[in-house]
Amino acid sequence: MQAKASRHHDVVIMGGGLAGLTLALQLKQQFADIDILVLERRQHPVPEAAHKVGESSVEIGAHYFSKVLGLTEHMDQAQLRKFGFRFFFSEGRRDIDQVTEIGASRFLSTPSYQIDRGIFENFLGKEALRRGVRFIDNAIARRVDLSEDDAPHRLSCAHAGETFVVTARWIIDACGRAGILKRKLGLAQDNAHHAHAVWFRIKDRIKIDDWTGNAEWRARCDPPARWLSTNHLVGAGYWAWLIPLASGSHSVGIVADPRMHALDTMNTFEKAMSWFERYQPRLFDELDGKRHLLQDFAFLRNFSYGCKQVFSARRWALTGEAGLFLDPFYSPGSDFIGIANTYITELIALDRARRPLGAHAQLYDQVFHSFYDSTLALFTDQYPLFGDPEVLPVKVIWDYTYYWGVLSQFFFQRRLTDLAAMGALRDELAHCQRLNVAVQVFFRAWSSFSQKRNPAVMLDQAAMPWFAELNRGLNDTLDDAQFRARLRASTAQLKTLAAEILARACGEHPALDGSALRALVAESPIAAEARPLLTEFS
């Protein structure tokens, strides 16, 4: 899949994977005349299933692919609609129907998808060519010389045994963990979250619904298709994923805190199988007879990292894993691709209008990092409580409420670049961020007191009307005043939820110290909601 490169381009994107190709489509959608060159190291078409991880999308990423880029037909016909997230406290158990389950009993209103990355990236490559993007596969960026002034950047590339040079007004690094610009500019940044992951694909369906003959348990979901969820099998210090792919394969992975589960206990397929036999024996039973269907195996040590800067007024930017990476627990990877690409598109629009970039690039970078920091707090030092059937369900509700009520609102309402709204809501956003950090700290303290009871119940997210409405409301169209009212209502909802979490935990464990969170809730000028939120979730 090749298109001949001319000498100069408006934008050169290094990397033709998910981040780079979606950016190319977004730019071409906004500017029909823009000249874009995408350079991709891999040969196209790429393999289906055994290609890349990052198969599970959530609401922001799904909305970005479907609505912002206009790919609804592909998502609905070529990918699988996801039955939400689902969690089972199944460590050491084979009786999946006799443990606590977190999940929705029905599909919620706003869709998300399980994405076969091979199918998707092959489609994106063809779609980019169809829309007039120049796309060269089997191409490697050898050297980047960034301009110090208004002159074009210069890029040396290798392709088909030859070297060619192009110039560009904009250079975008979407090359993944290779991080060409990050290494060149010294932007790499560690963060406080240290975890590792191993994963593989099996050429078969893994239908968790068939793990028991309990008809009542199966009937709790409509449709009875839990296998379409991103299923998490959780325990202290880890979670294992099960993600179905449209090609008929299933993605399986383990993500763990090295302080509790060392990488060298799972960094080969045989070791991973032995690990499953000990910690998730029912999954081991399922996989044991499918060993011959293994398609690939890979692992990453210390996969999470930050980046000092991702957008620059010097007309370069980073997107996807070339910039920063959080944690796959809530599948935020495609969310942050959509957010970064939207900011990059806006900066290029400002540049094409010959407007100065300095203030906007700096503000967009600050906001992007604020979103990153808020999301990072959901994972940092939280892995020990993943095996707690009393605390993790409440954490999941809090984390969703924060995600749908704050971050998702900015994306769905196309307010990411609305600096006036962010300024008007500055106090509310700062309070939500502080409240989130305090609640995450409180969850850790609560788990140290928890009895970790694991009853055979389904904690049904769809049974909470306010929660289902929060999801449905993502698709509302709001004017300026309605948007600001929505964010203030979300702040009130989070305050109410924090107060209920305090009351539930401290009521059961009087020795639990909730003073820091209690003080933060009390100091908030935002009035709490009158209705209780957690009563349906216990």
Q: What are the main properties of this structure?
A:
538 residues, alpha/beta, Alpha-Beta Plaits, eight-stranded mixed β-sheet
Explain the overall architecture.
The chain has 538 residues and is of the alpha/beta class. It has a domain at 80-114 and 195-300: Alpha-Beta Plaits (2-Layer Sandwich). Helix content is 39%, strand content 18%. It contains 16 helices and 20 strands. The protein has helices spanning 18-30, 59-68, 72-78, 117-130, 180-185, 215-218, 269-279, 281-288, 333-352, 358-376, 392-412, 419-424, 426-449, 465-472, 480-508, 515-523, and strands spanning 8-14, 36-39, 80-81, 85-88, 101-103, 113-114, 134-136, 139-145, 153-159, 162-173, 188-189, 196-202, 230-235, 238-244, 250-256, 294-300, 306-307, 311-312, 316-318, 458-460. The strands form four sheets. Strands 1, 2, 7, 8, 9, 10, 18 and 19 form an eight-stranded mixed sheet that branches. Helix 1 (18-30) packs parallel to helix 9 (333-352) and helix 9 runs antiparallel to helix 10 (358-376). The longest helix has 29 residues, at 480-508.
Question: What are the SSEs and their pairings?
Answer:
Elements: E1 8-14, H1 18-30, E2 36-39, H2 59-68, H3 72-78, E3 80-81, E4 85-88, E5 101-103, E6 113-114, H4 117-130, E7 134-136, E8 139-145, E9 153-159, E10 162-173, H5 180-185, E11 188-189, E12 196-202, H6 215-218, E13 230-235, E14 238-244, E15 250-256, H7 269-279, H8 281-288, E16 294-300, E17 306-307, E18 311-312, E19 316-318, H9 333-352, H10 358-376, H11 392-412, H12 419-424, H13 426-449, E20 458-460, H14 465-472, H15 480-508, H16 515-523
Parallel strand pairs: 1-2, 1-10, 2-7, 4-13, 5-20, 10-19
Antiparallel strand pairs: 3-6, 4-5, 8-9, 9-10, 11-17, 12-15, 12-16, 13-14, 14-15, 18-19
Helix pairs in contact: 1-4, 1-9, 2-9, 7-8, 9-10, 11-13, 11-15, 13-15, 13-16
